Amino acid sequence: MAMNKDAFRQFQEELAALDKEQDKRRKETSEAPQDRARREFLALRERYQLSVADVVAFFPEEEGIAYLQGLIAASEMAPRKRRASRKVAEQD
């Protein structure tokens, strides 16, 4: 019984799709849970075009305040790290 080349090609494409899906799952499982949650949250925020106020309003008041404090702390910490690395680069 001869095998149709189109059927074989389709089979190969399906196997390739399964391999890609498996690689994607492997990548997601190796990602830290907090990083995965952050990535998914930011994707939802972008998808529905939510502002920070919309997000904060979704949480109870205490959690909303903690979220804002985390955003502020992250934005304040990032420039300091860059300045330190520039000083090291300038010394070399």
Q: How would you portray this structure in words?
A:
This is 2-hydroxyacyl-CoA dehydratase. It comes from Dyella telluris. With 92 residues, the protein is an all-alpha fold. The chain has a domain of 46 residues. Helix content is 86%, strand content 0%. The radius of gyration is 23 Å and the shape is elongated. The N and C termini lie far apart (70 Å). The relative contact order is 0.04. The model has no long low-confidence stretch (mean pLDDT 78).
What's this, in brief?
This protein has 92 residues and is an all-alpha fold.
Q: What percent of the residues sit in helical stretches (DSSP H or I)?
A: over 70%
How confident is the prediction overall: mean pLDDT? 78
Q: How would you classify the helix and strand content by structural class?
A: mainly alpha
Q: Main sheet?
A: none
Number of helices: 4
| Regions with little confidence, pLDDT below 50 for 5+ residues | none
Q: Can you count the beta strands?
A: 0
The 3D shape can be described as: elongated
Rg calculated over all Cα atoms: 23 Å
Distance between the termini: 70 Å
Order of helices and strands: HHHH
The proportion of residues in beta strands is under 5%
Keywords summarizing the entry:
86% helix; 92 residues; mainly alpha; 4 helices
What's the helix and strand layout?
Elements: H1 5-30, H2 33-47, H3 52-58, H4 61-91
